[in-house]
Amino acid sequence: MGSTILKKVILITGCSSGLGFALAQQLVGNKKYRLIITCRENSFKRISEAFTETEEVILRKLDVTLDLNINEIVDEVCKRWGRIDVLINNAGVCFRSVVEHMDFESEMIQLKTNYLGPMSLTRSILPIMREQKGGYIINISSVSGMVSMPTMASYSASKHALEGATESLWYETKPYGIKVTLVEPGFINSDSFKRVLFSKKAQLSHELRGPHSEYYYSMSPFIEKLMNFSFSKPTTIARKIIKILEKENPPLRLRVTFDAIIFGFLKKILPVNLFHKIMFSLLPGTKKWGFINLKSTHHREQRMIS
Ligand SMILES: NC(=O)c1ccc[n+]([C@@H]2O[C@H](COP(=O)([O-])OP(=O)(O)OC[C@H]3O[C@@H](n4cnc5c(N)ncnc54)[C@H](OP(=O)(O)O)[C@@H]3O)[C@@H](O)[C@H]2O)c1
Question: d(Cα 36, Cα 58) in Å, to the nearest integer?
């Protein structure tokens, strides 16, 4: 088991911060694995300062939205190590915007990063896993893959898409001995809220008073607060993921934070209409939503953002 050749090869995306960084940190030095730690070009300095390349750890630039980049890395790893045993699709971005303020470009960034990219990477690795008669694909989803919140439509759509496709994949790869898991964190105590993206119109609505401004004023600090109160840090979640790496029969869905377990339970037991009514009543500032619809501010916002 000490021989390098028997060590499993794990490829992780989005390792410059948060969960990806914690996973890489905890896996480096683990004698069972060889690692490909990846992140986008702009953040490469961060991972090259934090991790050292060795015989068993390589650092690479990988933007999951670029097919060429994906193929290059997969080819290189195959030439070097001849296999890929675990793919952890962790990279993700999160837009905060009401549906009305999203635009095509922002939708594409959201979907390419959280859904289309992970699917491309999965597609390029699956033939290798089939040939080696085994492998494990871990897709980092979210509570937003099971429930949707206001101002998070596009993010939720990307995670729902990831959930749907991953569920199909579970059936499709089972006969080949390839395991599949959706990891579903709820709120993680990290500073990833600082990296939230805003569409142009959402950004302007933050700055101007308009019909949707109250959604942002109430939801942004609410989400930030819940993240700060969460017991789950990226390191806690990374540990849970590493625990399932060697499981013979890992679950299709793994809820890794307390709120994710509660949301899953409530969704299961409550009639769907009641669930949404309760959710609405629990959200902050709902009484103000839609009440700043003064004609003048509405027109001002429309003029500025159209
Ligand atoms: N934070 C939470 O509360 C939470 C809750 C549920 C689920 N999740 C999910 O957990 C995963 C990790 O999130 P996190 O909290 O650790 O967020 P994070 O700290 O913002 O990390 C996201 C990582 O994704 C990378 N990334 C973004 N776009 C990329 C692209 N096109 N190609 C490759 N890498 C890209 C970022 O790299 P750059 O440095 O290049 O931007 C960063 O390393 C995500 O899938 C997220 O949706 C997070």
Answer: 5
Give Cβ neighbours of residue 114 (< 8 Å, ≥ 6 apart).
Answer: 92, 93, 155, 158, 159, 161, 162
Ligand 1 mean position to 158 CA, how many Å? 13
d(CA 94, CA 169): 24
pLDDT in tens, 211-223: 899 999 999 999 9
Residues tagged active-site: 155
Domain assignment of residue 165, yes or no: yes
- The stretch 50-61 carries a mean pLDDT of 98
Q: Is 139 in the pocket of ligand 1 (CB under 6 A)?
A: no
Q: Give a yes or no: residue 188 inside a domain.
A: yes
Nearest alpha carbon, ligand 1 atom 32: 63
Mean pLDDT of the chain: 93
For residue 79, being part of any structural domain is answered with yes
Ligand 1, atom 14, residue with closest C-alpha: 18
Query: Per the structure block, which two tokens stand in for 208?
Result: 């101007």
If one counts the domains in the chain, the total is: 1
Domain that holds residue 82: 4-198+232-259
Residue 270 lies inside a defined structural domain of this protein: no
Tell me, in angstroms, the distance from the centre of ligand 1 to residue 114's CA: 9
**Ligand 1 pocket, 14 CB below 6 A?**
yes
